[in-house]
């Protein structure tokens, strides 16, 4: 591309520079963001307020300048010679609330690896699929869907790390389940319609609240301040009887102080896999008061889902003959869950350079999944045998429900200071939260129930977890070129489990952890549009609930003595933001990011094939494992007509020494002995060595955009043995997206959009699992592989009306 475009550059290249100052006192504003609107080019003002763009071709430009606490300014510039402009910013008459999430986000000064996904990108991809699918084009991301089409239960991996190792926050509030560490986006359907932007951090990042980031962080911010009133309605239909209905509104700024935003959504789908249906309902509401010195905002959102279970996957031997096979046939084999989120945010300017941001939150979750089980032992459910005459019935078909009923609440805060010169930024923050959850099971029907009653409770246990952290972080600009960053967090976790599980095993546990998590980074501005950075961070993470409860019975000492995991993370990279080319008299902006990472794990918990007393798989601490690689990302944009984005990840993901356990069973399926297989430098499961994403979007006529999206993922292994017998094949998938926008006189906008997924009709699987066993006297190893097939060619059509 460079060779092709080079002869087309215009010979005349000019410099655009200037100063950003406070309109009230004419003081320089250091760190103001200056961008050329409609391009990918931007910079920040120096300590004296100076900014500069070099090698710009002749043309018309719009300078857009923003700075926290000040109103945005725009300046039209006709560039035909070297030009200097002075821009003054007025202090904002109201606070917008950015301070609430600033403490958890990375920026150009923190030396970490991140990608910002703005609202425009989110809305372009949002056709009602789960939130992971809106991030599929970001570097190192792989997504999958149980039902095959992106509606219902979905998964996301970043650098091979699954959602239990990804720190997720919404407006700085932790979202990961305190016990499983997972985040279930199915409980927050259509959340993307109420999201302002998402920052995807890779590695330990700057995570401070919630679960430790052991691969990445998703920092989600919901809708910000919209000064103008609006109303929107979106309706969609697609393959597999997929429907989406969403209405939203915003009051705009009332009396220069109050705002209200709301949304109602309903999404349903039959799914690609048989009976893998979803019925999802959600709402979002926010109300805020914005003053000159402070802001208070209430945010609530909720999701209620019912999904037919498809989590068993498809056996390998049925992939060719019946890709949509679902082993479950009971008509109410469903997952039913509701999750309500309540957040109260507050920020206040305490002095000219000092502000405080804080939030209280409460998350309420409750629901169950229902299962039909045939020929179960009644004793397993605490039900006495049924005696009829001389016949004793000890087994029965039953229908059971497994329940979760939990409360999660707490507070976060961040005290932020910026010195007068803009060189020093410091934050003192922390969080406290508590999880209180009940786990219990009920038998709601049995063919032979004896003297038991309906909703007979056969197990009951509770989990109570308290999490506290305090952190301090500092960014200091040593000079116009060099800046340093430091962050130190202290975190404590206390976890208590009481009761018995569904196998009638006593899971009583008392465990506590104390973590110190340091981070440090450095950035150096090579030129105004080129930056190099490096950072080193340490993250610690406690075991998940299943690591405690699945430990063999009568082994409480081992359960409470489980070892936490530690990650040592090195990141080093280069960023380029340019605007120095011209094509056919049009401005050509470009960006490039190159990053090297090394993630060294100590005592990472992985599956090794070991089972506990009742056959549940166990995770075991592996002493040494690592991920290392490079991430490349770039974009080229020709005004608003053509944009090409591309990213590529090449990685090596290894366990240095790994021992696999395979059980050998006798003819009565009792364990006769175990086999130990040793591996060296073996691949970590679900960690593809190559991941790439590419997007070409063209606007041939005003209002009509067409985009091709291409995703490639190399082969992955289902376990940690790197065996071709237990593997996910690599795949390449192309999507086509069409959007046509009209602006009629009687409304703000009408958009008709079409997304064709898997345009080339590829058959592929994006997730799966495996287990193996052998039998006495038989040297053959039997592998049982299960896969989650993704949908072949399918479409989603959407019509949006904006008023």
Automatic annotation (TrEMBL):
SUPFAM superfamilies, per the entry: Carboxypeptidase regulatory domain-like, Porins
A cellular component annotation (GO) from this entry: cell outer membrane
Cross-referenced InterPro entries: Beta-barrel_TonB (IPR000531), Beta-barrel_TonB_sf (IPR036942), CarboxyPept-like_regulatory (IPR008969), Plug_dom (IPR012910), Plug_dom_sf (IPR037066), TonB-dep_rcpt-like (IPR039426)
Protein name: Iron complex outermembrane recepter protein
The keyword Transmembrane is annotated on this UniProt entry: yes
Domain TonB-dependent receptor plug: 108-216
Organismal lineage: Bacteria, Pseudomonadati, Bacteroidota, Cytophagia, Cytophagales
Main location: membrane
TonB-dependent receptor-like beta-barrel domain segment(s): 308-759
Location(s) in or outside the cell: Cell outer membrane
Family (UniProt): Belongs to the TonB-dependent receptor family.
Topology versus the membrane: Multi-pass membrane protein
Keyword annotations of the record: Cell outer membrane, Ion transport, Iron, Iron transport, Membrane, Signal, TonB box, Transmembrane, Transmembrane beta strand, Transport
Domain of life: Bacteria
